[in-house]
Amino acid sequence: MKATLNLRFDRETIEAAKEYALKEKTSVSEIVETYLKKLTAKSSKKKFQSDNLIGILKQYKNLSNDEMRDLYMKGKHNA
Question: Superkingdom of the source (predicted)?
Answer without folding.
Answer: Bacteria
